[in-house]
Amino acid sequence: MTYSFLEIAIWFSLAMLTVSFFLTIYRVISGPTLPDRIVALDMLVAIAIGYIAVIGVKTGYYLYVDIAIALSLVGFLATVAFARFILTQGITREDAEEMKKEDTLHLDNNGGEQ
After folding, report:
1. What domains, with CATH codes, occur in the chain?
2. Taking the model in full, what pTM does it have?
């Protein structure tokens, strides 16, 4: 049984999207800061758009492209909302490092006691 180039490309694309999905899930779980997790969630939306596009090509039902466009709009708006949250209330990596330094200085000035 011979496969066409398009079928091979579809299966290869689905395999690569699956690998990137699991790597991104790992980043969401182990992301050291909130911005890292938000970027990973945005990447998950991009991977979902990729899945939808590949399935649309595979089935020949091109309404999936419209669904992917709608999902990209929702993903963009969610990323903007998360970014605004971080700017107003979230703690960035620099803030966390500064808080660690302040705690260390506080411990050093009090002889190890708080």
Report:
1. 5-109 (1.10.287)
2. 0.73
